[in-house]
Amino acid sequence: MKKIQTVILMVLLWVATTFIGCATTDVKSTETTQAGKIKNPVKMVGQLGPEIAAAREESLDVLSPTWFPRAELAYRLAQEGLERGDEISSILENVHKTRTCLVKAGENAETARTILGPVIKERETAHLAGAARLGDDYNQAEENFLSLTRAIEDNNLRYIQNFAERIRQQFKDLEMRANKMATGIPGNPNVETNKP
Q: At what angle do helices 117-128 and 88-115 cross, to 10 degrees?
């Protein structure tokens, strides 16, 4: 009778350990699945490149100058982790960080487009007029614009209220100078004229 109880106990322990092992496997497999799909770190990191490029195309690098670089950094870390053969969990963590930062950057960019609409429009117009050729003055205006978008990320509305119109006017002036330079208006020191 004791032998039978021992055998039954061993069988129960074996069954219990098997189910615990399966349960552990299920937990791990749910960590590596999402909606029934296996998370492939190579594929996921590969998808980030086009997402970063699309975000840059949407000007998130300028409209969210804090969160977009964080997304790029996490992406780079995911790539490097993949190349080094780091643990999958570490790579996936950086993939997640990249996407989280891109979402935050997108939210900030949307806020910037709403609050800074006239400044953004004037900036684009100045750029199309060729204001970048004006060198340091244009670079200063760009730096001032980045200070506005950083203020949005920092929820510093007072700074935006105080400086948005000045920076819009700065781009307007650059646009006018660029147009003068392009058309060769006499008296413009930035234009070389061909005298006969």
A: 90
- Bridge partners of residue 3, in order along the sequence: none
Instruction: Give residue-wise pLDDT tens across range 23-56.
Output: 333 323 333 444 546 578 899 999 999 999 999 9
In angstroms, rounded to a whole number, what is the distance separating the alpha carbons of residues 44 and 49?
9
Report the candidate in 49, 110, 115 with the shortest Cα–Cα distance to residue 76.
49
Residue 51 makes CB contacts below 8 A (sequence gap 6+) with 98, 99, 102
- Note the pLDDT tens digit of each residue in 105-164: 999 999 999 999 999 999 999 999 999 999 999 999 999 999 999 999 999 999 999 999
Candidates 149, 146, 141, 148; CA nearest to 172 is: 141
Distance CA 152, CA 109 (A): 9
Are 146 and 65 spatial neighbours (Cβ–Cβ below 8 Å)? yes
- Helix (H/G/I), strand (E/B), else coil: 65: coil
Which sequence spans correspond to the domains of the chain? 39-114, 116-182
Output the pTM of the full model. Answer: 0.69
